[in-house]
Amino acid sequence: MTLSRNSSVADSGLHWMRPFDRAEARALLVFVLVIVGSVISPRSIFGEQLVRLRNGLVVRGIVNEISSLNQDPFAAGAAGEVKSRPIWMIDDGLRRLYVHKNALVAGAPVEVADLQQTIQLAQPEPIGGREVQGLGDMLAISPFNEYGRRQLIVRGPKGETLPILQGIAEINARYARLAGLKATPAYVWDMRLATSSLDSATLRAMFNRRLDMTDLDERLNVVRFFNETGRYTDAKDVLIETIRLFPEEKRLESQIASITERQANELIEEAQLRRDVGQPAIAQQILEGFPIADVGRVTRIQVQDAVSEAKKTDQQIETLMGQLRTQVQTLAPPQVAMIAPLLDELDQFLSVSSLPRMSDYSRLGQAPEVPLDSRIALAICGWLLGNGSGENNLAIAISLLSVREKVREYLVTQDAGRREAILDELRAIEGSQPEYISRMLPLLVPPLEFPDGSQDETVAGNFHVNGLEGLAKDVGYDIQLPPEYDPQRSYPCIVAIAPPGVDPRRQIEWWSGQYDERLKTRLGLASRYGFIVVAPHWTRAGQNSYEFTAVEHARVLASLRDAMRRSSIDSDRVFLTGHNEGATAAWDISLAHPDLWAGMVSVGGEPSKTIHHYDANAKYVPIYLVMGEKDGTPAPFVRNGDKMNDYMGMGYDTMVVMYRGRGRELFYEELPNIFDWMRSSAHVRGSPPSDIETVAMRVDDRFFWWLEMGPIKPPVAVNPVLWDRAERIRAGKVSASVGAGNLVRIFQGPTDSFTVWLSPEMGLDMSQRITVRYRERNHYVDYQGDIEVMLEDARTRADRKHPFWTKISLP
Fold first, then answer.
1. In whole angstroms, what is the distance from residue 673 CA to residue 90 CA?
2. Residue 380 contacts by C-beta under 8 Å, 6 or more apart in sequence?
3. What is the pLDDT of residue 27?
4. Each residue of 423-449: pLDDT tens digit?
5. Which terminus has fewer CB within 10 Å in the chain: N or C?
6. Rounded Cα–Cα distance for residues 530 and 535 (Å)
7. Cα separation, 169 vs 193, whole angstroms
8. What b/e readout covers 782-794, taking b as 16+ CB neighbours within 10 angstroms?
9. What are phi and psi of 411, to 5 degrees?
10. Full-prediction pTM beyond 0.85?
């Protein structure tokens, strides 16, 4: 922690001044507000704004435009002379959010009222003292007592331990303002905590002790506070007690029903959310336990409609399966025998999540104008290839059943000879066309099971996997599957990198929450929103920092690939995240391999080495940076503002979140905002870009979407461990494009060889000749429909959603 002397009144030389009493202070405050109000716009004092971002998020706070994030007074252009940016800082009192106005903001901000209920708690704040400018590690934090006070033990600038007293001086629905308290020595410190991080028992005890709860207005302030924070049970409890103490206030009784309605609406929304993320049983439990008798008619109807909708879907599945079984029985016995295993599979796995795959059959299954065998083919192909396959040839549909089994075996077997034999077998089957297999691959259940003994018997859905292919036996990962995990459903995924020396399981707890033995599930937001969490074991023994090496990258990426082979991960919604040194690793790995991620979340990461040279790659990765404004010395925007400033421009999707008065912490309270960001429809990895403009400077940073480079030539390739000894540190540019007329051009790259991977997703017509031009020389690809490259690519990269069909190596 770094401290500076903040002059007190006595130090200022104004010895004739005496302390103000409370009345004088209030009068002075009114006077100051009147004067300030004459020169500052009313919105700066009395209102906030809602800002809608292009990624669909809506944020609220006081909006100010600034020119730069770089606060280094010695850096050229630090004040905005050279690198001026139209950056919006949105201050909500708890944190400051920074976005590039032209890149991320959609439309003008909308004026809204301030938070309605703020509770002041007088605390013995010092008139002067040492100002806390930077914080080291938090060694211990006591709980808040009934006076709203606590003690922190902080590591000081010389390694000493410093005890600091804090008290809650102000609290509203969004944040609590903590102040340093009188002590010897005294510390001046304005720190903000999210109100959501304070438990109800602490708040109730604090209000009972610090507020006059015999006063009706004070009690109603507490009710309003709990209402605004969404703690409706607490609001109702305080309101019921208030009615008991003030029986003459009959008007308050109607408010109990109003609070109950709000609770009910939250339950309905929660049930719908759980259903949407693939947790219908939890949704059903919520609705079945709904307090129907306590709510109004409109809410009752909403609940009844939700229950009816769930039953309707179940009935639809039952009817559909009965109809299909009856129709299949009319076929020839050999055909019935071949289709029977699929019917059993549908009985087991057809659900509200996978029902859309059967929409063609659901629409035409009883259409008399469509031949019966065509209707059955639509059902089979819908399940194997997805909705809208349009394939109604029963012979091909049945052949696809065999194709699927052989494709699945190919992805699993480690025997290269057997894989060759499978390819020969597939080439002899009518349905082994690349168009069919490319649609089939994403709908396969994960080809590998979790290893025997890897499941945690005490935590449902938790596995510990070791011995990843090609790596040391102790290299692996922990993984947490969400409640009601269904291998037929595709789930978003968080790859969470723990700091060195920290058990990776702590990252799973941060994202997925603690395990509740009674409910048999974790209670965190990753569980609630249906995310798979993967925590790689990426460090070597004794490692205490991220080293920027290819080995570290390989361990993280191998963990993801193995998890994708064993669990149903949506490769378009994989987010790389980390804390502190783990966040630095996530930052670097995301920029080195921008083709893999839907976004990157760094909590307390520090840019260094290659990160400073990979700005071009950052344009392809949505970035979310979280930190405390007093995290170390100098402050984050002095240390790293120049790098964050580079991301505040057109072409970047970057949000910087700075918590006021905070140091290096875990920032649990930011989780809801992070999930809103990750769940945005804007943060989904799309098709491969037509134009690649990236950089590379490390031996394994060689694959960008469809362009793979050979060995990177010296002196571009830098060993990160020997970074300070490198004679030249400059990233090599990589540039290529896909243009009209089936033309792929490679413009440059720090290598003498390339492999170009090709697929229709790149905008190429695979039925026509493809031209790949490099160094003014044309190379031609005439794709003949072979499936070996596709299957081998799906097996090795484990991305079954975007398989490449063929490739060409140059020169």
1. 14
2. 339, 342, 394, 397, 398, 400, 401
3. 32
4. 999 999 999 999 999 999 999 999 999
5. C
6. 16
7. 12
8. ebeeebebbbbbb
9. -70, -20
10. yes
Residue 631 DSSP symbol: B
Classified as helix, coil or strand, 80 is: coil
Rounded-to-integer distance, Cα 705 and Cα 471, Å: 24
In angstroms, how far is CA 205 from the centroid of its own chain?
35
Return the structure tokens found at 508. Answer: 């799973």
Task: Give the separation between CA 273 and CA 605, rounded to whole angstroms.
Answer: 32
| Contact (Cβ atoms closer than 8 angstroms) between residue 209 and residue 147 | yes
Q: Which pair of structure tokens corresponds to residue 583?
A: 């966040």
Cα 570 to Cα 801: distance, rounded to the nearest angstrom:
8
Give the count of beta carbons closer than 10 Å to the beta carbon of residue 445. 12
DSSP three-state, residue 447: coil
Q: One-letter amino acid identity for 11? A: D
pLDDT above 70 covers a percentage of the chain that reads 93
Q: At what angle do helices 372-385 and 333-349 cross, to 10 degrees?
A: 40
What values do phi and psi take at 111, rounded to 5?
Answer: -70, 135
Query: What span, in angstroms and rounded, lies between the C-alpha atoms of 425 and 408?
Result: 13
DSSP annotation string for 720-741: GGGGGG-S---PEEEEEEEETT
Render pLDDT for 345-378 as a digit per residue (tens, 0 to 9): 999 999 999 999 999 999 999 999 999 999 999 9
Which residues does 196 contact at the CB level (< 8 Å), separation at least 6?
229, 669, 672
